[in-house]
Amino acid sequence: MGKRISIECAHAASLAVKLANVDVIAAYPITPQTHIVERLAEYVANGELDAEYINVESEHSAMSACIGASAAGARVYTSTAGQGLALMHEMLFIAAGNRLPIVMGVANRSLSPNLNIWGDQSDMMASRDCGWIQIYAENAQEVFDHTLQAFKIAEDERVLLPVAVCFDGFHVTHVIEPLITLDQEEVDRFLPKHRKAVYKLTPDQPSTWGPVAGPDIQTELKVQNEWALNSSKDVILEVWREFGDLFGRYYAPLETYKVEDADAVILILGGFAGTGRVAIDKMREEGKKIGLVKLRLYRPFPIQEVKDLLTRVKAVAVVDRAISAGGLGGPVYGDIRNILYDEEHRPKVLSFIAGLGGRDITVKDFKRIGEKVLDVAAKGHSEHKVDFIQVRI
Amino acid sequence: MTTDKPTVKNLPIAGIIFVPGSAKEYNTGAFRSQKPILDAKLCTKCGMCWVYCPDGAVFVNSEGMYEINLKYCKGCGICSEECARKAIKMVDEEE
User: Fold this and answer.
1) How far is Cα of residue A367 from the mean position of the Cα atoms in its chain?
2) Largest CA distance in chain A
3) pTM of the model as a whole
4) Distance of CA A170 to the CA centre of its chain
5) Do domains A4-247 and A254-388 have the same CATH topology?
6) Topology (CATH level 3) of domain A254-388
7) What is the least distance, in Å, from the CA of A101 to any CA of chain B?
8) Least buried of A222, A345, B67, B88, by fewest C-beta within 10 Å?
């Protein structure tokens, strides 16, 4: 049986990757991802993990090496953050379009300028349309579990898509937390020891990947990818269920907290959901009917689950740690409003942007957000503009 | 809609081509607006057209003469430009 240990969340990712018995790691160190790949390099150097560790000169090369290795049939991991993810941007699409089951840890970091190594989600949000499965983890346990599950999801013959496991830089990556580990035997019961590649680049059966596709065929290829990503949701749910049955920790695309009788909810991705829950408890003590929704599965978007939940409340506050530039608020806010538009009983949806470049989102901030969204819920109408929390004007 | 063209469902995954050497099926000659005409009387068989053709569309026929495979020739005109004897003329394709 796995033990209960304390571990830095970044190292929880490394441990999961080791237990997943990866064949190839190609990565370039960048804060706040560094500890993940540092620990992996140690595992390989110590002989604890029999994998090829490819040192590369950039993140573009890291993803390129992952693409090659994955196409050759290897189980592959990489990790990056911020500018590193931005530099990979082009190759992210190549990985998804070629249906390569790469797993990547993203230690979410702000994008330059100005030079800021701290956390927010603008890196992954700028790449959200890359065709990858995107899962947001909140703590060491989720980082560990989702990283392990990601290999099983990605490599499933019905999926064959890359998976990004995202977790906030510093606020999650650098925090030491309790973790219930799994031992190798347990992991092996869940995840096959080796990847069984259905399609691979091999001299035995020469093939051409990513050839020219003109106007007569590109639409069909893009739709094929879109269908694959959308239908991966069933497999994701299946894998999460199987994981839960084996180890007792169940996951769902949305995690809710005190929403049952709520007039309004706050919706957020990632680590600050924890602070959000504390604020919800305090507001509940004051008799306020408010709850919290944590969006775990971001792509494919859990459309039906979000609709079912949010059409029951009067107002939703979406807290984004990124800006969708040009006046539209946060990216997640845009998604939420988009899917609710045609609903008969649709709630008011308010955009809050907070926690940029590593700034804390405090309990007080959540309470202020809560009061605003409850006020809109009570009045039934909203004159809300995009609200930048804690900004000094 | 019935069509002979590939569909989302019947395309191989990611558009991967599993048959090697399939590029020879591409009729790249369809790109052409001008075609090269070689005057055998002027040709000294120096082979410069063969060297320079970016598509490998120049070949030596059974009689030892240089000839251009119009299935693949895109009509770029490099052979005509490089021919020291000016034996290759580019002429417009007919409408």
Assistant:
1) 25
2) 69
3) 0.92
4) 15
5) yes
6) Rossmann fold (3.40.50)
7) 13
8) A345
Summarised one tens digit per residue, pLDDT across range A175-222 is 999 999 999 999 999 999 999 999 999 999 999 999 989 899 999 999
Q: What is the DSSP letter of B64?
A: S
Residue whose tokens read 């399609």: A199
pLDDT one-digit tens code per residue, A294-323: 999 999 999 999 999 999 999 999 999 999
What is the rounded distance in angstroms from the CA atom of residue A190 to the CA atom of residue A152? Answer: 8
* Radius of gyration of the CA atoms of chain A, in A: 21
Alpha carbons B91 and B12: distance in angstroms, whole number: 40
Structural domains of chain B sorted by starting position, each given as residue range(s) with its CATH number in brackets: 27-92 (3.30.70.20)
Dist. CA A83–CA A325, nearest whole Å: 18
Which phi and psi angles does A76 have, rounded to 5°?
-130, 140
| Structure tokens that stand for A293 in this block | 């929704």
C-alpha B41, offset from chain centre: 22
- % helix, strand, coil for chain B, step of 5: 20, 20, 60
The answer to whether residue B3 neighbours chain A at the CB level (below 8 Å) is no
Reported ipTM: the value is 0.88
The 10 Å Cβ neighbour count of residue A250 is: 10
CATH of domain A4-247: 3.40.50.970
- A363 exposure class (CB count in 10 Å sphere: 0-12, 13-18, 19+): middle
Query: How far A96 CA lies from chain B's nearest CA (Å)?
Result: 9
B91 contact A CB<8A: no
Helix (H) or strand (E) segment spanning residue A244: helix A218-247
Name the nearest CA neighbour of B17 among A227, A205, A229.
Answer: A205
| Inter-chain touch B11–A207, beta carbons under 8 Å | no
